[in-house]
Write a structure and sequence with these properties.
By secondary structure, this protein is of the alpha/beta class. The chain folds into two domains: 1-91, Rossmann fold (3-Layer(aba) Sandwich), CATH 3.40.50.170; 97-191, Rossmann fold (3-Layer(aba) Sandwich), CATH 3.40.50.170. It has helices at 13-24, 42-50, 60-67, 113-122, 157-182, 184-190, and strands spanning 2-8, 29-36, 54-56, 74-77, 94-98, 126-133, 143-150. The chain has a seven-stranded mixed beta sheet with strand order 3-2-1-4-5-6-7, sandwiched between helices. Helix 1 links the parallel strand 1 (2-8) and strand 2. The longest helix is centred in the last third of the chain and has 26 residues, at 157-182. The chain is globular, with a radius of gyration of 16 Å.
Length: 191
């Protein structure tokens, strides 16, 4: 079972998903700590409600200072909207989810609604999400798991966002379970 730190920047929808799946026995992980780079966000309130230690830490140095106090196997970026640089001991253990099928619509500047607007503008009929290990560049680390969703011609960017988030709720826990089963090195060795 993996010991996770969860980094977030907003409402904590992905934290909700993790918590629910852990409680149901579908996610082979334990949340050790939740950290937000934004003060007073709903995600921190949810973490406290669930009984997880919750902290505001505005930059990498502060986040890594908090992490020193916890036994962590992986760091999950769950709606964390900054480039994160882990301490050397966890450099290969940072897992991110991106709301497109990498290598499409990814990299610096492609996040959240920007991705879905670009998909709509391009006329894509398929989207999805990619769970991958993060490195020091946006969306470039080894892919763990991808999941597709079909789009309709009339789907708005908000419709696309809803469809993609629904598959994110399945894909992120699945990816974490795969890392638990195969180990971190398996994915980096394929990269």
């Amino acid at each position: 079972m993996l010991k996770m730190a969860v980094l977030l920047s907003g409402t904590g929808r992905t934290l909700d998903n993790f918590h629910d799946r852990i409680q149901a026995g579908d996610l082979q992980a334990e949340v050790q700590v939740v950290i937000s780079n934004v003060a007073d966000v709903l995600g921190l309130k949810k973490a406290e409600k669930y009984g997880y230690p919750a902290f505001h830490a505005s930059d990498n140095r502060m986040i890594n200072s908090v992490l020193k106090n916890y036994d962590i196997d992986v760091i999950t970026l769950a709606g964390y909207l900054k480039l994160y640089q882990a301490p050397p001991s966890l450099k290969r253990a940072v897992i991110n989810i991106h709301p497109s099928l990498i290598p499409a619509f990814c990299g610096d500047g492609f996040y959240g609604s920007r991705v879905h607007k670009a998909l709509k503008q391009r006329g894509c009929t398929v989207s999805g999400c990619t769970v991958h290990f993060a490195n020091d560049k946006y969306d470039e680390g080894p892919i763990i798991h991808q999941q597709c969703v079909n789009l309709e011609y009339e789907d708005s960017p908000d419709d696309i966002a809803r469809k993609v988030f629904a598959v994110e709720c399945e894909a992120f826990p699945e990816a974490i379970n795969r890392v638990n089963e195969k180990g971190i090195d398996f994915f980096w060795d394929r990269f």
